[in-house]
Amino acid sequence: MKTIVTGAAGLIGSALVRHLNLAGADDLIVVDRLGTSEKWRHLVPLRFAEYFDAEEFFARIDAAPNAFGEIAAVFHLGACSSTTERDASYLIANNVRRSQEIARWSFARGARFVYASSAATYGARESDMREDLDPYSLRPLNMYGYSKHLFDLWMRREGLLDRAVGIKYFNVYGPNEDHKGTMRSVVAKAYEQITERGVIELFKSYRPGVADGEQTRDFLYIKDAAAITAFLARTPRAGGIYNVGSGIERTWNDLARAVFAALELPPRIEYVEMPEVLRGKYQYRTVATIDRLRAAGYVQPLTTLEDAVRDYVRGYLVTGTVLGSETAGASSPLPTFSATR
To answer: Which domain, by its residues, includes 192?
Structure first.
């Protein structure tokens, strides 16, 4: 029985395929839209049976629903993940309608259906981020978050949610996010800023009582995100929505210092003005409540921020290594950065 992974060349998708490969699974159908990006490089070290472009895949399952034979699991991770995307029609078509198509197809095949929701569905909420909140009380702040919320609501209305797993990923970061442009994590952007100027820029705080850089996020390393996703898929009693984060809030200052420490450099942080357009929508605190995940049986320790940043910076950003190709260049020395601007 085959496993299907959509968004397989993306950040979470490629890490999941790698995780499945390490567990001995390679009878995978991987799906993505590669376009003119360099995402194809993320697939090179991975093992799978066949690759399909997303348009070809959806046309295939529409014309011949049984074309792929028996399906064990479908990981639907393919979507537009840009929180700044303003084309609402595109987001509805890509993140809602296509998700409905593959969900219906998966359930008709008797496959385990696991899909990516998002912590963005919680909107401006800064505490008590629990999966059992009234879904109609949530107010996403951007169209991306709303598109994910609409699909969560559809799954619930159709009575499918308890038989599937919807994952609300928090701030996931790590190797294979190079294609994301402005949507890359602050770790990747910080490394780039250090190579260019020797400093890391963080937004100033505009909330009394919160110092510059002391705004917090729930940072989750991509390798942990992949492991949790695979765990939830293979755990029969797991059903419904799950927060997937570390359950620990850390500051942007913590993150910046971890990047400098990974490079064995003294921290140099500059606080810059936040664009006016963001100030009314900016969250000063996010942290996942992961009691439900722990109750499902996921008891493995999660990688600390410092260890994860060190692994990402030294093992991947410095060497330019793709996830899954860790042996190549693993012993490369740290680069020397100029301290001048």
So the answer is: 177-217+250-284+304-317
Gap between the Cα atoms of 51 and 4, Å rounded: 10
* 75 inside domain: yes
Q: What is the pTM of this model?
A: 0.93
User: Is 180 one of the annotated active-site residues of the chain?
Assistant: yes
Asked whether residue 291 is assigned to any structural domain, the reply reads: no
- Please indicate whether residue 148 is annotated as part of the active site: no
Q: Exposed e or buried b for every residue in 4-25, given b needs 16+ CB within 10 A?
A: bbbbbbbbbbbbbbbbbbeeeb
Q: Name which of 62, 49, 69 is nearest 5 in CA terms.
A: 49
Residue 201: how many CB atoms within 10 A of its CB?
14
Residue of 51, 115, 122, 144 marked catalytic: 144
Domain of 95: which CATH number? Answer: 3.40.50.720
Q: What is the CATH number of the domain that holds 185?
A: 3.90.25.10
User: Whole-angstrom Cα distance, residue 79 to residue 285?
Assistant: 26
Read off the pLDDT of residues 117-174 as tens digits, 9 standing for 90 and up: 999 999 999 989 999 999 999 999 899 999 999 999 999 999 999 999 999 999 999 9
Among 329, 205, 308, smallest CA distance to 258 is for 308
In 3-state terms the chain splits into helix, strand, coil percentages (rounded to 5) of: 40, 15, 45
Is the Cβ–Cβ distance between 341 and 197 less than 8 Å? yes
Q: What is the pLDDT of residues 251-267, one digit of tens each?
A: 999 999 999 999 999 99
Side chain identity at residue 17, one-letter code: V
Strand order in the sheet with 164-169: 50-53, 28-32, 2-6, 71-76, 112-116, 164-169, 240-244
Cβ contact 274:282 at 8 Å: yes
Give a yes or no: residue 204 inside a domain.
Answer: yes
Largest CA distance in the chain: 61
Tokens 């109609």 locate to 136
8 Å CB contact between 103 and 261: no
List of residues 6+ apart from 82 with CB closer than 8 A = 144, 183
